[in-house]
Write a structure and sequence with these properties.
Elements (H helix, E strand, L loop, with lengths): L1 H14 L10 E4 L2 E9 L5 E7 L2 E2 L10 E2 L7 E5 L7 E5 L5 E6 L3
Parallel strand pairs: 4-5
Antiparallel strand pairs: 1-2, 2-8, 3-6, 6-7, 7-8
């Protein structure tokens, strides 16, 4: 019985921990959330640099412009040739991959 009570207590403590997780990985630019996809962009499709991440968000909170919950401060992001930046942008990740991010709701 004591063992069962200990197991239940541990489960409750773990289940009620204060750690939070984001619903999705994103970068916020011009008040739009761009959701990270698994699609890679070819370097020749990369357009003009739009900016860089200014704020890395470690905890779930209200995001501000130029913030990301996945890309570190200083990460550059770009237009994708032939696609409006209101639809999608691209990020060069730390591994050198160019990843497509799509505007939330697109």
């Amino acid at each position: 019985m004591k063992y069962l009570l200990s197991v239940i207590t541990v489960i409750l403590l773990v289940g009620c921990s204060s750690s939070t997780s984001w619903a999705y990985q994103f970068l916020k630019y011009n008040d739009l959330h761009y959701i990270v996809t698994e699609k890679e962009v070819e370097s020749y499709d990369l357009g003009e640099k739009l900016g860089e991440v200014k704020y890395y968000l470690e905890e779930e909170q209200n995001s501000k412009d130029l913030s990301s919950n996945i890309y570190p401060k200083g990460t550059d992001f770009y237009e994708i040739n032939g696609i409006s930046s209101l639809e999608a942008i691209a990020v060069k990740d730390v591994e050198g991959k160019i990843i497509k991010l799509v505007a939330e709701g697109e």
